[in-house]
Automatic annotation (TrEMBL):
This is Tetratricopeptide repeat protein. TPR repeats lie at residues 73-106, 107-140, 141-174, 175-208. It comes from Methylophilus aquaticus. InterPro entries: CHP02466, TMTC_O-mannosyl-trnsfr, TPR-like_helical_dom_sf, TPR_rpt. Pfam families: 2OG-FeII_Oxy_5, TPR_11, TPR_16. Coiled coil: none annotated. It comes from the Bacteria.
Length: 501
């Protein structure tokens, strides 16, 4: 006897619960050919496609289901997640808001909407969304954790600490919260507390990737290079191989460094700027050819242009200077900075229109940078990212005697700065931007490491490969030097950023 449609649907739901997604997709499509307006079939198909990560097809199936029945908040919620996977952020935001309009107490929808808004840099809206969720479930530690991440992005470090502490109070084994609390204490300059919280995370989960990475970073900043290596190796996170190379090089274990560097270089595309920094320095130090071809001669890839919208006297320049002077943005401790202040948080993700406008101007110049160097035969250009994300952006205010020691930005692809105020000096090098191939106390077997400098004007932008060392030359003028610095790197895929316990 042939099965009835309800029996067929029950069978599909059982298969779905067993994880037989391919079978569900095949059978649901056959049934839909006979029953194209059966809502449940579209819904089950969408769930199976979603679970098997066939996101474009899942989005189509959710859309068809919603055309037949648009009053299910859970359906809009699932549709929003799939749209987020597809990078359709505006549509995903609308879907989350529709879900919330149908069920204002949908805690998970408020949380995911907050995550989506936060990734887009809409920090005030994200914070509001997280807080609304917490009025629904105030005892949910995940909600407090996510609120903490947005507060930290905005530079509200003390508030972020409170949110992470509340998450831990509610869930004492919350390893992500311990780790992020440590990172926030680090941003506040309290390294002893930062290490304490990293260790708390590792006591609960010795394999915690971020906590291992952060402990490794602390140890190498403390020049305990050989102790740091096992933490980076355990983390397997992001640029961990570059960090191991750094430790080997700073410990002057040159043979071990060369062996690992050469192994990495043979594995494929040379797309890690930090490894390029190390490899270039080693090669100059030892008089050898550099096998890591991210950017063969980084000094040739420095770009300086004037941004008309930031010329002296323009409205945007005045608004930016006013925001920097008056906006309540926490300070991030910076050991390399003398006679100056560096802001915390991610400036271009704040709500102030001037910072947002500046971020768009930087992205425009980033595109111009690619066009300018388009003929270059190196990984910097051949693997130039299509979609970009500001991993960080901050202002630096210096006064008389101010300077910044030579360093690199390990997490960028292209780094740069826009200059909003510059001291007038007789010596053209005072207050200048110097770039080169040596810094950060790397071991030197000789001093023949090339450098060059640029003296920017107000309204200038300088872009350069993140593999280059750079510093600010001290100046003696009784005036301020103000710039907004940033790192751009390939944009990550976005789903939701809710932590795991």
């Amino acid at each position: 006897m042939a099965k009835t449609l309800p029996q067929e649907i029950n069978g599909l739901i059982q298969l779905l619960s067993l994880g037989q997604f391919a079978n569900v997709v095949q059978r649901a499509r056959l049934l839909l050919a006979q029953h194209p307006r059966e809502f449940v079939l579209h819904h089950v198909l969408a769930l199976a496609l979603d679970q098997s990560q066939q996101y474009p097809q899942a989005a189509q199936a959710y859309h068809r289901a919603l055309q037949l029945q648009a009053t299910s908040p859970e359906l809009w919620f699932n549709y929003a997640i799939v749209l987020t996977h597809l990078g359709q952020w505006q549509e995903a935001e609308q879907a989350y808001r529709k879900s919330i309009s149908l069920n204002p107490r949908f805690f998970e929808a408020h949380g995911n909407l907050g995550t989506l808004l936060q990734k887009q840099g809409k920090l005030d809206e994200a914070i509001a969304s997280y807080r609304t969720g917490l009025t629904i479930q105030p005892q949910d530690p995940r909600g407090h954790f996510n609120l903490g991440t947005a507060l930290r992005d905005k530079g509200l470090l003390a508030d972020a600490v409170s949110s992470y502490e509340q998450a831990i109070t509610l869930f004492p084994n919350y390893t992500d919260a311990y780790n992020n609390l440590g990172e926030t204490c680090r941003d506040q300059g309290d390294m002893s507390q930062a290490v304490h919280y990293y260790q708390q995370a590792l006591q609960r989960n010795p394999q915690h990737a971020n906590a291992n990475y952060n402990m490794g970073e602390f140890l190498y900043l403390a020049k305990r290079f050989e102790e740091a290596i096992p933490y980076f190796e355990t983390s397997q996170l992001d640029d961990w191989q570059a960090r191991v190379l750094y430790c080997l090089y700073r410990a002057e274990q040159f043979e071990a460094f060369k062996q690992l560097r050469d192994t990495i270089a043979k594995q494929g595309a040379h797309t890690a700027p930090f490894i390029a920094t190390l490899s270039t320095h080693y090669s100059i130090n030892h008089g050898e050819a550099d096998p890591y071809q991210f950017c063969p001669n980084g000094l040739d890839f420095v770009y300086q242009r004037s941004i008309p919208e930031l010329a002296p006297g323009t409205a945007l320049l005045e608004e930016l200077l006013n925001n920097i002077a008056q906006t309540d943005i926490a300070e991030r401790k910076q050991a390399r900075l003398t006679n100056g202040k560096q802001s915390a948080g991610n400036l271009f993700k704040r709500s102030e229109p001037a910072f947002r406008a500046l971020g768009e101007l930087v992205k425009r110049e980033f595109s111009n940078y690619r066009t300018h160097f388009n003929a270059a035969n190196c990984a910097l250009i051949s693997h130039f990212p299509e979609a970009l994300d500001f991993t960080s952006s901050w202002y630096v205010r210096m006064h008389k005697g101010g300077h910044l020691d030579a360093h690199i930005h390990e997490i960028g692809w292209i780094s740069g700065a826009v200059y909003l105020a510059m001291p007038e000096t007789v010596d053209p090098k005072e207050g200048a931007f110097e770039y080169g191939t040596h810094g950060d106390q790397y071991p030197q077997l000789h001093t023949d490491f090339p450098t060059a400098f640029i003296k920017p004007k107000v309204g200038d932008i300088v872009l350069f490969p993140s593999s280059l060392f750079h510093r600010t030359i001290p100046f003696d003028a009784d005036a301020e030097r103000i710039c907004v610095a940033f790192d751009l790197k390939p944009s990550p895929n976005l789903a939701t950023s809710h932590s795991q316990y």
